[in-house]
């Protein structure tokens, strides 16, 4: 038994029925040649036959322990693999619609704290010679980026490799995490709750000079926007049910736009989101007059004296008030440049502090009534996580796509997480089912948005 | 908005991640002649097209409200029918095994308190020209018996009746509840939490004579057993995950045994349970030396001066220490007679009080550590709820079977609820997944147990 670091236990403390604190991933696989009708249930049976489980996937929370109510990690000696590794079916006709419906539902259920907090669901009955898997892990155990890398490291680039082991197998390389798996330098360290917890821990060590610098930088950052994020339909209290939508677009289409406009991959991705959100909110009659503000975590090089990378949170003007797609893209591009410039020359500690400030309302969001009275620092969290470039295989089954599922927060009802995989940009949209109605519509609107950009350049 | 009666809100207060407080039902239907491959998804689509929902199924809890933390019932004006009425698929090969696996999982998830607390899942992909439905309702909204009666009243005895409406339709007769739907006289009023809450409410009105009588009756009731219920594997703290198993046996087989032995339907049902539990625990090496004690809620005629029926809790010696099936049946029969005799001549109030006493540990079971130190008043709760005698149809689809899912409590990891339907005795076993391993084995053992009784008479 080991006392859990505060950065882990925060996710257990912050969790409630309305705010599950787990991340997920949806993976689509092609059935390999010659796969029979029982291929998927056989795949599941094989997973259950591999009874070795690595210590990471055996640990479960215990607590609160001790006089100060800390949580601890403890090992589960009676791991019930059948509980964690599940087989589900889709109802007919087994389209992507039915797949997303089931995935949405699974992502809304709380994980059982009496067991290691992860689940892996194999999904049978998908049309078009495919099957899917949904992975789910509590954020206290594994964050989304680590989960993605772990899956990636378990798969093979070789279609004829039949020795692929599931992510929880002790045979899977875990060096994907680098030397320190939960190190703050790592992309994966970014998360609202974690960022604020880090800040709270480190703020004690701040000298007066640091506090002054962060305060000034915060004013400067706010000044880059020249306006306050408007109140919007996404910045309200949320409920427990989730809706998930996912789709991929060819990277080549996005690259053509960025080359023609001198912008970045991230800019074009944000412009797609901007166009889609604008139309979505226009249709619902909820588009604010002022443009929406997105918060985008980005890996930044820091002052050389500290070394390494740090994650900075950029507040970006999404220009949803502009009707022209290229206007929006240009505004986004400039806003991102200004946002990054604020962090120039800062130490990692300063970056952490500055990034955490706009996230404090999310971290304290579980206090009832808070969200209604505090204006949002931003309207939507959009993350872009680099993924594998080459196609990956699970015992010959080619992974067609991989889509991240994230955590909506009180006051942040929609999360957009994007990753790249084998020539495709994969969008995963996770929303509160009640607050973000007809989330699937955003997929069609993202597509329209990209088409408009293509026509405009 | 109406303040919720304490008998309803108790179920919300007593609920935690580990103790979901909802009841459920699994219904099996035959596909009608000529049903195409999309029959089940079409059935689901039709349900969604009936947008009228009765007030009972629109109300959701609001609270705690007011200074004393009471809950209230409020109406949901934005009922999201697609959220409540779901379509699920079974993985191949779609046997009863896969059906029970999915049902177990669904029964372990908490209901969303932001919405009316019920769900109806249509299940596609079942072998043998069948489909299934799983109904789930929070105990604060509807108890198991009421839910069963409501379903029953929504179905038709006429296979050609194509005007069947789902249980939540305002067109469904609700007179099945009788004049007072949540009246204590009703069978449905029986539940550990409710019984104890009733007791707490009424104890203030007890005169000294009543207290004396109940105390004496409790001593007498305990004396009928001449021993204390042993500690057993079922009387421990539980986890949140559930396992469900269900099967029906022809009533004729059970009637043949009761006629040959001069016992009752209930006695033979209990003897089946006794034989199965004995063998299950012997296999696991956990059979206590002393016999298990079952608690059985029964409808009792009360002292004529009070009128009506009341639910009494009978503590029955299950004779699991005896190897001979007929010995067990005889012991059970005699124990039930003695248990009923205790209640003879009592008023309804006295019956309520006496029945509530052994249930207090369950009602206070959410206090950590309580269960470990308190010896159990009984080992397993077994309920027998009368069901419909004639076959029922949903727009021509014959209901083959209906199986109740109940609530395991802290310290009571296994619940057996039995109902009758169209010539069959339908067993529903709901257990904590961790505490009651391989629950499905009990089905085979129940079958063996009935066969042994048949051979012995």
From TrEMBL, chains A, B:
GO cellular-component term (any): plasma membrane
Homology family: Belongs to the long-chain O-acyltransferase family.
Domain of life: Bacteria
O-acyltransferase WSD1 C-terminal domain: residues covered: 308-453
Keyword Lipid metabolism (UniProt): yes
Source organism: Actinophytocola algeriensis
NCBIfam families per record: acyl_WS_DGAT
Alphabetically ordered keywords of this record: Acyltransferase, Glycerol metabolism, Lipid biosynthesis, Lipid metabolism, Transferase
BP GO terms, sorted: biological process involved in interaction with host; glycerol metabolic process; response to hypoxia; response to nitric oxide; triglyceride biosynthetic process
Protein's UniProt name: Diacylglycerol O-acyltransferase
Catalytic reaction(s) noted: an acyl-CoA + a 1,2-diacyl-sn-glycerol = a triacyl-sn-glycerol + CoA
